Amino acid sequence: MTRFFRILVFLLLVGAMLLQVGCCCFCVTPVRRNPIINRLPNLGSLAGDRFVSRTTASFADLDDTRVLELEVRPDRTHIDIQARMQVNEGSVRWRLIDPQGRLRWQGASVQRRTIRDQQRFEAIPGTWQLEIEFSDASGEYEIEWRAR
Questions:
Q1: Which pairs count as long-range contacts for 99-106, CB under 8 Å and 24+ apart, including other chains?
Q2: Range in 15-29, 53-67, 121-135 the model is least confident about
Q3: pLDDT of 109 higher than 70
Q4: Pick from 145, 101, 93, 87: which is nearest to 119 by CA?
Q5: Which of 104, 108, 116, 123 is deepest in the core (most CB within 10 A)?
Q6: Looking at the DSSP assignment, which residues form a beta bridge with residue 66?
Q7: How many CB atoms neighbour CB 123 within 10 A?
Q8: Is 131 exposed, middle or buried (0-12, 13-18, 19+ CB in 10 A)?
Q9: How many other CB atoms are there within 10 angstroms of residue 44's CB atom?
Q10: Does the pLDDT value for residue 52 go beyond 80?
Q11: 72/49 Cα distance (integer angstroms)
Q12: Cα Rg for the chain, rounded, in angstroms?
């Protein structure tokens, strides 16, 4: 990734977070560095009394773990998460961990398979983490969080 592109992405992320003053915060944190192609982060928006955040990414020959985080405020009552995983090659596994460290949801997908799933959880204030583990994987995913 070129330095210009890194700076541009950083400025976009900072600008988006500044627009969310007092809202939930969403970020993508790589655990190991390997390229994800066509990352399209959307740091979220407010829609009435709910917070919506969507991340879409394509990946190729990825052997890595990514962590998506959602900071949930105490005034939220529940969290909805929608996931779509299209795996063309390799495999992908995911785990959702609540702020108390409990495993709340997990799944896996193997090559030539598309998974669509939606889950609802009672909102526990703090940082929720969705760990996505890629094993020689190619494909794309879309994750949408809603905190209400």
A1: 99/72, 99/124, 99/125, 99/126, 99/127, 99/128, 100/124, 100/126, 105/81
A2: 15-29
A3: yes
A4: 145
A5: 123
A6: 30, 132
A7: 20
A8: middle
A9: 24
A10: yes
A11: 13
A12: 15
